[in-house]
Specification:
181 residues, alpha/beta, Rossmann fold, 6-stranded mixed sheet, globular
């Protein structure tokens, strides 16, 4: 697990979110490194969970996630992605997003419903509504690592500043596994 530690001025993150809001990026890859670089530029503390350092679930547990944490999964094909999502949905993290296509998202939502993110009955729609898929604001343009990372940091920053609303973001899922554009 890599921690990029930079103090966050009060002006960057409001009191409602707290100056200790932190971005947690799960799975170290090119996108995660670029997200960490951009987060550092805007002075948003970031932790990159590298599965080479041990199971992601163990590392997330060690972080003691709170409502001031935004968790972003950068590898939708990781073998334990459903377990990570269930754990984060069942916990206090204030934001959860995952990179992935609409078709992958549809399959994942069905898996989460069947396995249950909040008990034996399966994941309820309110819990699934907390999962932002695909993560990041729609900035248009090419799908480069830099632009993807910028869109992710922008969405997390909007959330941290209380500017991400259900009407204004793309996570108002109808929860048939698809998000409307």
């Amino acid at each position: 697990m890599s921690i990029i530690s930079q103090p966050v001025p009060e002006s960057v993150l409001p009191e409602a979110t707290g100056p200790d809001a932190m971005l947690v990026v799960v799975t170290s890859n090119v996108i995660a490194a670029t997200i960490a670089a951009i987060a550092g530029i805007v002075e948003l503390p970031v932790v990159v969970v590298d599965q080479a350092d041990g199971p992601a679930l163990d590392q997330l547990g060690a972080l003691g996630l709170t409502a001031r944490h935004a968790v972003v999964l950068t590898d939708h094909d990781a073998p334990d992605v459903a377990a990570i999502i269930r754990t984060v949905l069942d916990g206090p993290a204030g934001y959860l997003g995952m990179m992935g296509s609409r078709s992958r998202s549809a399959h994942l939502f069905e898996t989460l419903r069947a396995e249950g993110a909040e008990g034996a009955e399966g994941a309820d729609e309110q819990a699934l509504g907390r999962l932002h898929v695909p993560v990041g604001l729609d900035l248009g343009g090419s799908r480069t690592a830099g632009l993807i990372a910028l869109s992710v940091v922008s969405e997390v920053t909007a959330w941290a500043n209380g500017r991400l609303t259900r009407e204004g973001d793309r996570s108002g899922l109808e929860h048939q596994g698809l998000r409307t554009p």
